[in-house]
Hints:
Blueprint: H1 32-45, E1 50-58, E2 61-69, H2 76-83, H3 102-110, E3 111-120, E4 126-130, H4 132-135, E5 143-145, H5 147-154, E6 165-174, H6 183-204, H7 206-210, E7 215-222, E8 227-228, E9 232-233, E10 252-258, E11 261-269, H8 277-280, E12 290-295, E13 298-302, E14 318-324, E15 332-334, E16 341-343, H9 346-352, H10 362-381, H11 395-404, E17 415-419, E18 427-430, E19 435-439, H12 443-447, H13 458-468, H14 479-500
Parallel strand pairs: 1-7, 12-14, 17-19
Antiparallel strand pairs: 1-2, 2-6, 3-4, 3-6, 4-5, 7-8, 7-9, 10-11, 11-14, 12-13, 15-16, 18-19
The structure holds adenosine-5'-triphosphate and magnesium ion.
Amino acid sequence: xxxxxxEVPTExxxxxxxxxxxxxxxxxxxxxxxxxxDLVDNAVDAQANRVVIRFIRTQRGLVxxxxxxxxxxxxxxxxxxxxxIGGRREYGGSDLGHFxxxxxxxxxxxxxxxxxxxxxxxxxxxxxxxxxxVVSRSDFRCDVVTSSFVAAEFDRNWPFDSASSGTLxxxxxxxxxxxxxxxxxxxxxxxxxxxxxxxxxxxxxxxxLADGRLRIDIEVLDVENxxxxxxxxxxxLDPFGYPQSGLDDYPKTLIxxxxxxxxxxxxxxxxxxxxxxxxRLLDRSGDHQGLxxxxxxxxxxxxxxxxxxxxxxxxxxxxxxxxxxxDMGGLFQMNPEKSRVQTGHEFARLAATARAHDGTKLSGYxxxxxxxxxxxxxxxxxxxxxxxxxxxxxxxVRATIQNEIPAVRSVDPIAIRWDNFIDxxxxxxxxxAQTLWLNKRYRKMLLGGKHGGLNDxxxxxxxxxxxxxxxxxxxxxxxxxxxxxxxxxxILTTAAQAERQ
Length: 501
Ligand SMILES: Nc1ncnc2c1ncn2[C@@H]1O[C@H](COP(=O)(O)OP(=O)(O)OP(=O)(O)O)[C@@H](O)[C@H]1O
Ligand SMILES: [Mg+2]
């Protein structure tokens, strides 16, 4: 027998406060979008119904970012707790806050300076600043910002009134901002970042955005000409927003109960793979099958089966809504960034007990989802095959065409490109180069002020592709094909000239 005891003798204790450098490591899992979602969480908890995210641009490039809300604001005492790392408050039953960390972790992950400014009706506005680089080299000393500066920041030209109360967060030296003054690069960065942020916030808060509890706008302010650019509203992106359910008796709610826990699985079926943004979500693969965990209406996790089933191409149409309340007795845990849920090993056992009123189990749902997917594929494969397009169309348009039309095998894709023509013809079919050429002299008009690029004017290109793709097939151009090309050329060239006038 080996000697072993649970008890460990100790003789005294020593005080080991954390080194402020731990701050360097918090929020490491954040991206700009998830960090902004954390600030929006706080605005929602403060009963705000408007949020604006503003990028600040000067001749030096992008320099700062603001997030303003019209929520309840903070007084002197609360703002100190708010700035405290791990400073928790009493949380209500619908609060999104939980760890007392979000604001700091999100901000420190993105910026070298966080300023929190807030005001309450009839009180002096208050402001605090943390600079994580400085905090981590000193003790936890926080700068108190003058109330006249805070008042001036609130008095800027904001798109909604936060005079009675509101909170304004400011990030300087945002690490993700490109270190350049090149206009094109900044435009490209803003374009990409605003799109990603709209998608992420649109998805995370889709329930709030859809029923009007919340409105979020994103804008860019060019300080030199003092004009805020166009506001981009964040639209709800509902992963269950299919036009019609895949089957009439779906969505179906399955209820699981075990050891006093009760969890509802609301099982949905998309009718077919779709190119709607709600189906494709944040990337183009459009395969976001699995469980969607919500806590207090905020989406924590989109997709993944958590051991309930293996990921399987044939389950593409299956998405399940699960409302949970944060940490539940070892069943679920959310990460501090609130961008993921972890489930305990009991979870799969709980899921196996799920039943609908009519007796349907999750296994039955998976079978139905697979059958529906096979049927949707069969319908597509009955369509006449076409040569698919290659270079010239945006990847998502090409992906849709791949979803909708079976491909003619072992033939190169049709490239769609611009060229200088000697005449006015709108297009030219080049079977040797497997290319559909468009006449460059109509390009500017078709772009209507937008930047050109390899994948520009997708609508015109798609229409033309659908019209002419078939003439790229076969050994020779038949008589009928030649006549068709002549007819299309005559009509489209006249139309292009008419449009140019
Ligand atoms: N926009 C805001 N309006 C009013 N109060 C705010 C705002 N942002 C933060 N606060 C206050 O600051 C506190 C700390 O925010 P922080 O995000 O760090 O933690 P939390 O929201 O309590 O929890 P979690 O870590 O889960 O986000 C909040 O509890 C709230 O009292
Ligand atoms: Mg928070």
